[in-house]
Write a structure and sequence with these properties.
One of its GO terms (molecular function) is DNA-binding transcription factor activity. With about 290 residues, the chain is α+β, with helices and mostly antiparallel strands. It has three domains: about 10-70, Arc Repressor Mutant, subunit A (Orthogonal Bundle); about 80-175, Elongation Factor Tu (Ef-tu), domain 3; about 185-240, no CATH class. Helix content is about 40%, strand content about 20%. The strands form two sheets. A seven-stranded antiparallel sheet has the order 4-7-6-5-8-3-9. Helix 1 crosses helix 2 and helix 2 (about 25-30) packs across helix 3 (about 35-50). The chain is globular and about 60 Å long. The two termini are about 35 Å apart.
Amino acid sequence: MPLPNLDMDALRSLVAILHLGSLARAAERIGRSPSAISQQMRKLELQLGQPLFRKQGRRVVLTEAGDRVHAYPSDICGRSEMTRKNATSRFEAKLLRPAEPRHASWTFVVLPAEVSARLPRRGRTTVEGTLNGQAFRATLEPDGRLSHWLKVDKALREAAGAAIGDRVVLEIAPAAKEQEPKLPLDLRRALDDAPEARATWESTTTLARVDWVHWITSAKQPATRAKRVADACDMLASGKRRVCCFDPSGYYSKAFKAPEAADEPQGGLSGGRRAGRRHDPVRTASSR
């Protein structure tokens, strides 16, 4: 059943409620009153003719209707830029070395806000472009501040003739086709043992699979990861095509951030783009 035209601002609020677990916390995070958020949800429910949430203990979870809506805006903060998908952004940035792991051979760049805003989503997303004229294709990681950071491996850095600490020129654009995520071994084995889950996995979209893998691999502890693999199979077996209650941008959950730079003071880049902007102003120029 096709969805009607839904208010984008209300959909942002829905995503916040889902990821924070309550309307009150979502209202605080967004900076609006609970009554205003509640009114937005009532408007969405009237459009759909069905409730979006149900209580599960102290949290709110999606109904079937809510799950359909969530499949549309799970990365809502970036989808308003979908019409600019063919845009190319050009900017300069400093190649930063991460504080951890020590003596890492790779470097990274935090994208300016206006560059990330031109991408189709705020979660992991694949881009194609050049670094000092050297072509590359890579998956950007969310920085938890509605922007992204790019990992630059040693091979690309050397091919581009750049050294750690150099300012480089990058041009990036969304990839014509999203890159299929590598299936982790533990998830592959679990899916092999769950035919119904495997069937749903194979029928969903590449972007949905990107988020499933990101959710599982972002677990900090082995026990958490094992539980997520098991939960993923249960959800997929029940027909859920997208991972529930996962914030791919890290903005609402505070789950992701750019690496801290080795040449920054404590906390220098732990906050992502804001700190990077303070210490390393970035000049940008975008063209369609």
